[in-house]
């Protein structure tokens, strides 16, 4: 999904992640929801603060495949890359701890160049126990199967699932719009 590169856009993205996780069977006060919401908050705040280009938005994607949630924040600022290892902030500093939080909470994280356009994608992954909660998505609108303007496949949510095995084997995507504008 695309959001304005403003603090309001980052806040809306964070809230939407929390709502989608609740829809997927991870209620608001659960560790999975709280952890992924905090990771989303940090990634989107960094996209706004360090990846902002006037007139350009940032994109957020949340997926679940084989028991691993992946959250990606994509901006259009390729020249400002986060360091591979988050630096230790000055103890008196009021900022600079976002990637330290992401590194501490996520099972893996990194940066990849944005394909077919300037920019970068900062991503984080969190593995969850499979089979403990259903990952259904009944309340959200279902996008149609299509190919975006940039040629990236998008997928719809299955209308019905019959078993936990079928649920865990199929990748899920909350938002996937091809990252083009």
Provide a quick synopsis of the model:
The protein is of the alpha+beta class and 181 residues long.
Name its key features:
single chain, 181 residues, alpha+beta, 6-stranded antiparallel sheet, two-stranded antiparallel ribbon, globular, disordered C terminus
Verbal overview:
- By secondary structure, the chain is α+β, with helices and mostly antiparallel strands.
- Helix content is 28%, strand content 21%.
- The chain contains 4 helices and 8 strands, in the order βααββαββββαβ.
- The protein has helices at 7-23, 31-50, 98-105, 164-169, and strands at 2-3, 58-65, 68-75, 108-113, 120-127, 146-147, 153-154, 172-173.
- Strands 1, 2, 3, 4, 5 and 8 form a 6-stranded antiparallel sheet that branches.
- The chain starts with a strand and ends in an 8-residue tail after the last strand.
What proportion of the residues is helical, as a percent range? 25-40%
Radius of gyration of CA atoms, rounded to a whole number: 16 Å
Low-pLDDT residue intervals, each spanning 5 or more residues: 133-171, 173-181
The main β sheet shows up as: 6 strands, antiparallel
Break the fold down into its secondary structure elements and pairings.
Blueprint: E1 2-3, H1 7-23, H2 31-50, E2 58-65, E3 68-75, H3 98-105, E4 108-113, E5 120-127, E6 146-147, E7 153-154, H4 164-169, E8 172-173
Helix pairs in contact: 1-2, 2-3
